[in-house]
Specification:
It comes from Albidovulum sediminicola. Keywords: Aminotransferase, Pyridoxal phosphate, Transferase. One of its GO terms (molecular function) is transaminase activity. Belongs to the DegT/DnrJ/EryC1 family. There is one protein chain. The chain has 370 residues and is of the alpha/beta class. It folds into two domains: 129 residues, Aspartate Aminotransferase, domain 1 (Alpha-Beta Complex); 227 residues, Type I PLP-dependent aspartate aminotransferase-like (Major domain) (Aspartate Aminotransferase, domain 2, 3-Layer(aba) Sandwich), CATH 3.40.640.10. Helices cover 36% and strands 16% of the residues. α2 runs parallel beside α8 and α3 packs across α4. The chain binds pyridoxal-5'-phosphate (PLP).
Amino acid sequence: MKYARPIYVTRPVLPDLPDFLSLLEDIWSTRILSNNGPMLRRFEAALGEYLGVEHISIVNNASMALVLSLRHFGITGEVITTPFSFVATSHAIRWAGAEPVFADVDPVTLNVDPAAVEARITPRTQAILAVHCYGQPCDTDALGDIARRHGLRLIYDAAHAFAVRHDGQPLVAVGDLSVLSFHATKVFNSCEGGAIICPDAATKDAIDLMGNFGIVDETTVTSVGLNSKMSELNAAFGLALLPRMDAALDARKVVASRYWARLKDLPGITCLCDPAIPGRNAYAFPILVSPDYPLSRDGLYERLRDEGIFARRYFYPPIADLPMYCELPSASAGELPRARRAAREILCLPLYPDLAEADQDRIIGLVSAP
Ligand SMILES: *Cc1c(COP(=O)(O)O)cnc(C)c1O
């Protein structure tokens, strides 16, 4: 490799170390390491305040959060979902004991297309699991309307949508349940972690119970629960990071705006996420590389990689083309043309709050003149 210091698609933000150490001292003094401890409760309260939502169940990762969300509603039938997402979205449906049914995406937002969702509804459909891809809101009005008219549960995989606001409210407050991921690669992280945004206290309590083995008290177990608890260490990390998030989100926006200004008119390149839209979180900087660009998408991916720049093809291959899903009728050849085209053309450029200007200039230069 030519460059000693590789540039990855993302780099995690970290708390100020003294802030984290001070919380660790609290943990050392209580010697409580898990089981809904004081640090978790502080993190939950601070997170709710930061996001502007009241009822949050914090869990150990978003995959678990998705499974719990589906199980909470007893979903075991068909779940209409997007083929253009991280594989965990569909895996969670299977782990919940249900069956994914893929609906094609909107070609501009790459979020699931409400008309395509409605066309997939059968008597076995029980829920819609939509993804706010790259933190761009789904057509929540149309999906909500479809869910209401057909009596379906509407769950959002909001793993990318930390702190996004839409129509004057937190995007995660929309739908029956929304799931956030706090994995290291996301906008906000607790190393590993996730959360379910609930509409009321009763829902939160039910989900917390399911995630604590179904244990009500020392002698009472009321359901076949499992373990989705976040440790006090992870909670301390998240709690210490929250105060840095305003600055981190602002810095992401600066980086995304430089990409946008310098790449948006480049022939053969389509920039997908306009960072100037209020309420967005600059989760990623995805571009589509169309056939009139001098290189193929993979050609550009490799050109950058040769220079030590690790752009990523999120999301390729589409979930519907993976071996465990490709036999589904909704995944057959000829279906999902827009998702499959997006998967062929997509490339996410490196984006994180402290991406150096000189590094970004090098990336922009290479994309502009490959
Ligand atoms: C990262 C991600 C997940 C999984 O999150 P984990 O916390 O790593 O389990 C699920 N869905 C989407 C869209 C993601 O990007």
